[in-house]
Amino acid sequence: MTKPRIGVIIxxxxxxxxxxxxxxxxxxxxxxxxxxDFALIDLRDRNLPFFNEPASNLWMPSGDPNAVAWQETLAxxxxxxxxxxxxxxxxxxxxxxxxxxxxxxxxxxxxxxxAYGSMGGARALEHLRLIGIELQMVPLRNAVHIGGGDxxxxxxxxxxxxxxxxxxxxxxxxxxxxxxxxxxxxxxxxAAA
Length: 193
Hints:
Layout: E1 5-10, H1 20-30, E2 37-42, H2 65-75, E3 79-85, H3 93-100, E4 110-116, H4 122-134, E5 138-139, E6 144-146, H5 148-154, H6 167-192
Parallel strand pairs: 1-2, 1-3, 3-4, 4-5, 4-6
């Protein structure tokens, strides 16, 4: 059995987004993971229209070629880590639209997050977990949160320090998240075989 493939989805598409900094840190930490393969998926690189299909692709094929390409990309993954920015206590509009553009490709796949914001992206991640349940995903308990003083230390809104300066605060959460993601991805991959 091949190692489960995990897509790391950057959810913010803003020109001035903070997401690139924690994503680079995460990708460096997982590059040699013994049990999982990781690939970066940047929503900026997708030309996804606003959802305008007659129905979910669970019920009928999507007509927009960009939506179909998105669905084909997602189908190749066994789980996901979302890099979650918190906008007005929720996820970004770009992420909600990307979630809506597929259905069956999300089913029975685990996901977690690296969330950030003044409150650690906690409220946005709670919304994402509820959406994930409807998409028949497996939302994991463990996630990495960059919030409060740590967020303002590494954010351009604050001191803009390197993530390495708060890394010791994140590593326990990262390990717990990766351990849980590994178990679920392998378990669900085996069940689907």
